[in-house]
Amino acid sequence: MPTARWLNGPDRNVTCFGETAKYREGLYRLTSKTYAWMVPNGAWGETNFGLIDCGGRSVVIDTGWDLHCARAFLGGAAEILARSPVHSVINTHADGDHCWGNQLFGDVPIIATHACIGHMHHIEPGSMRLLGRAAQVMKRVPVAGIDILGHYASAMVAPYDFSGIRLVTPNQGFSGETTITINGIEIILMEVGPAHTPGDAMIHVPSEKVLYAGDIVFTGCTPVVWAGPVARIVAALRKVLALDADFIVAGHGPLATRADVELQIAYWEHIQNELHRRRAQSMSAVEAASDLVLSAQFQATPFATWDSPERLLRNAQALYEEWGERPSLLPEKLARLNTLRQQGRLAMKLPEATPRVMHQR
Ligand SMILES: [Zn+2]
């Protein structure tokens, strides 16, 4: 099995959340033509980038949550980008941590699924700036878990700077599957959403046996379903296995092995079975998520040590809706905030979980 070689990166072994980095941050050479910029440990906004050097032209996959993240990648990849300037950018989906650095890549085509393009404005950088400021105030409101939401949200956004971000929407859409060929190198873009979000795509470079999976794969981190259905995430994960790539670049976390991908499938199967059983006992999604994640049985699984286990709460909500539960009547932004509040409450019951700053007060 070929191995990835670390080329350069920041000289630190702690993550932006203060955790010990489980792997080295920075630019890795996967094959002679493919690279990944890896950000440990894969928590909120610790998002990986991809780079395909097609000999004189290159393709960038995802652009980070803020301009600082994007500039760190651009710095690490400078030598490659000098000989192979950016031909195009691909956004795997519309979550800010994958596309809010778009403005730094110049006047090049930005490619995404049509569904991703339609979803680009679901959260604006201004809303995140507001959340960061509001969270500081909420921390001091010890009512209905608002202080916990304040703590959880402010710890989440603290490492990032959402100022100066201009939301640049991809200008080239596709549906289904499309191939771009640059200097004879085939890059296959596969729509797999709605799954994690409404517009997910994965990028396959068959000649290099490399797959950039976006947020279909979270290695060593708890995956999350924003759009669903979960069955489509599992189908996309099976597709990852079927492609038989030597390198699987996750949206978050280290390079994934086949076993990592199989474990992600096992997670989704485990939580569906366990939550379904709890729903039959009349537990709400919030109760079921809490009961499951705190159970001795779950704590004995490998999933318990994954980053951000409290995301099970959002996953439970999504599954309950799939099973016929009425979705929240709140407007989308408030509903997300409420989910975050409930997730924050659950996070505080998991003080050993990482990133610790989001689980301890
Ligand atoms: Zn992400």
Describe the protein's architecture and organization.
The structure is a single chain. This protein has 361 residues and is α/β, with parallel strands linked by helices. It has 3 domains: 5-122 and 162-260, Metallo-beta-lactamase, Chain A (4-Layer Sandwich); 125-157, no CATH class; 266-358, no CATH class. Helix content is 35%, strand content 19%. The protein has helices spanning 67-76, 78-83, 114-118, 125-138, 146-157, 230-243, 258-280, 285-293, 296-299, 312-322, 332-348; strands at residues 5-8, 26-29, 34-38, 49-53, 58-61, 86-90, 110-113, 172-174, 177-182, 185-191, 201-205, 210-218, 247-252. Strands 1-2-3-4-5-6-7-8 form an 8-stranded mixed beta sheet. It has a 5-stranded mixed beta sheet with strand order 9-10-11-12-13, covered by helices on one side. Strand 4 (49-53) and strand 5 (58-61) form a beta hairpin. The chain is globular, with a radius of gyration of 20 Å. The protein starts with a strand and ends in a 13-residue tail after the last helix. The model has no long low-confidence stretch (mean pLDDT 96). It binds zinc ion. Zinc ion is lined by residues 47, 95, 97-98, 215, 251-252.
How many alpha or pi helices? 11
Average pLDDT rating: 96
Cofactors, ions and other ligands in the entry = zinc ion
Shape by Cα distribution: globular
Gyration radius from CA atoms, angstroms? 20 Å
Q: Strand sequence of the main sheet, in spatial order?
A: 1-2-3-4-5-6-7-8
Beta content: 15-25%
> What is the distance, rounded to the nearest whole angstrom, between the alpha carbons of the first and last residues?
43 Å
CATH class of the largest domain: Alpha Beta
How many independent structural domains? 3
